């Protein structure tokens, strides 16, 4: 059997890895449009801040290493179209500008997503950057030490925008962070958490221009100098656009069924509208455990799960994509936070009635001094007030307690209730935590409120 895998990031890599693990003799052709396979954009901040020294190490695998395992790896070659009836793809070799047809028995598309561009004038000015992929990582790294770059404007205050703002703040630049939403990280955290993080960001020379809409980029001598919003103008030697992503699927619109937003429609086995073609990653939706509906949740964890499930089905197994909770985490200077499932701020958009309990505590018993690592921890548990089902949570502290969110993710997927969580068994040792885990405390408080 011959399997063609298109795209080398999380989903594509896991698909290849899954096939090799079970049937290493399968003929695999793996295509990457760029000249570098499996770069991890989620590791970009570590490279930009110098924690990781070599940009070429921010990857899952090398072409040489995968070829040694029997995979036919093609870099700088773009799959431009698919003929489902003939079971062929058209490949454009970007090195010599030639094209050819390749046959497949099974096809796995990890088309991914590309940075969304703000439709305003001035985007063609020099020093308007994106933050996705190895090429942008190298260019951004140079700007962190460029003495001519003093004012950096980041557009978009989600995860990538926060990472960009922190990178350039630590590099000694003045950063303006613009977002149309009223709070940074509003899609990931409720206000109890973002109020704390807002102060942290401003304390680190990051100006928050939230609740504003970008109207124009202006420049001089071909270089950007100013970002204009509906409320103000901000001097800008560098602009980093992180205003979301869009699926890289325009080339598939006449071949596969797509949503109105360009996502590839897949069934619960990740098969597309055409036989023998599967799709994984940021260009698809995944089943969301708290609601039972499918959502676009662009996370590496989801893409890798999809890649493995697609590989299983290609090899003849009958395996459905499991529901996910949408768990994610990030550090913002000294704070570490994680969230999963539904939040107060997203429940209405998902058509779900929720209630929450917010608690604060210390990570260890009161007798443990701060100098020994005892820190304040903030935790918010979201649940269905009618059947008590756990639907989501958020946690934040200057100590890394983010792994608690993994337990809540399992609780969501297992349809556990507040009654289950209130007295669930978690270990206790004063060097690590409290006798009652903060998850127990929040569930107990929620039950007490519901009983009133």
UniProtKB/TrEMBL annotation:
InterPro entries: FAD-bd_OxRdtase, FAD/NAD-bd_sf, FAD/NAD-binding_dom, FAD/NAD-linked_Rdtase_dimer_sf, Pyr_nucl-diS_OxRdtase_dimer. Pfam families: Pyr_redox_2, Pyr_redox_dim. The keyword Protein transport does not apply. The keyword Flavoprotein applies. Keywords: FAD, Flavoprotein, Oxidation, Oxidoreductase, Peroxidase, Redox-active center. Residues 1-307 form the FAD/NAD(P)-binding domain. Its cofactor is FAD. One of its GO terms (molecular function) is peroxidase activity. Residues 331-433 form the Pyridine nucleotide-disulphide oxidoreductase dimerisation domain. Belongs to the class-III pyridine nucleotide-disulfide oxidoreductase family. This is NADH peroxidase. It comes from Lentilactobacillus otakiensis DSM 19908 = JCM 15040.
């Amino acid at each position: 059997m011959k399997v063609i895998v298109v795209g080398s990031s999380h989903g594509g890599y896991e698909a290849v890895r899954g096939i090799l693990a079970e049937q290493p003799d399968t003929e695999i052709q793996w295509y990457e449009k760029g000249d570098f396979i499996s770069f991890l954009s989620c590791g970009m901040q570590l490279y930009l801040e110098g924690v990781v020294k070599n940009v070429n190490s921010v990857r899952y695998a090398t072409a040489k290493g995968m070829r040694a395992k029997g995979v036919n790896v093609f870099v700088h070659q773009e799959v431009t179209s698919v003929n489902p009836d003939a079971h062929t793809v058209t490949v454009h070799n970007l090195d010599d500008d030639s094209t050819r047809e390749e046959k497949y028995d099974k096809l796995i598309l990890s088309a991914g997503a590309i940075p969304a561009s703000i439709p305003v004038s001035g985007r063609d000015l020099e020093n308007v950057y994106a933050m996705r992929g190895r090429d942008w990582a190298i260019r951004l790294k140079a700007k962190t030490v460029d003495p001519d770059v003093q004012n950096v404007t980041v557009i978009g205050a989600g995860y990538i925008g926060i990472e960009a703002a922190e990178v350039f703040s630590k590099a000694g630049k003045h950063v303006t962070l613009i977002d149309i939403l009223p709070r940074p990280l509003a899609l990931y955290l409720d206000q109890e958490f973002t109020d704390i993080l807002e102060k942290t960001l401003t304390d680190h020379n990051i100006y928050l221009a939230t609740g504003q809409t970008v109207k124009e980029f202006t420049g001089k001598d071909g270089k950007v100098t100013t970002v204009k919003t509906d409320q103000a103008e901000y001097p800008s030697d560098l602009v980093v656009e992180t205003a979301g992503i869009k699926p890289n699927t325009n080339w598939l619109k006449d071949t596969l069924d797509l949503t109105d937003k360009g996502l590839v429609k897949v069934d619960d086995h990740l098969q597309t509208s055409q036989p023998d073609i599967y799709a994984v990653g940021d260009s698809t939706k995944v089943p969301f455990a708290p609601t039972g509906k499918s959502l676009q949740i662009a996370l590496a964890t989801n893409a890798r799960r999809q890649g493995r499930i697609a590989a299983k089905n290609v090899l003849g197994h009958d395996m459905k994509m499991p529901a996910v909770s949408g768990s994610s985490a990030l550090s913002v200077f000294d704070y570490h936070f994680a969230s999963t499932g539904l939040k107060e701020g997203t429940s209405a958009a998902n058509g779900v009635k929720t209630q929450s309990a917010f608690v604060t505590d210390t990570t260890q018993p009161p007798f443990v001094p701060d100098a020994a690592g005892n820190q304040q921890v903030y935790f918010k548990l979201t649940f269905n007030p009618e059947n008590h089902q756990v639907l989501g949570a958020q946690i934040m502290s200057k100590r890394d307690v983010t792994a608690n969110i993994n337990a809540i993710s399992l609780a969501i997927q297992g349809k556990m209730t507040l009654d289950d969580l209130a007295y669930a068994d978690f270990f206790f040792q004063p060097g690590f935590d409290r006798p009652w885990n903060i998850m127990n405390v929040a569930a107990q408080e929620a039950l007490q409120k519901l009983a009133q």
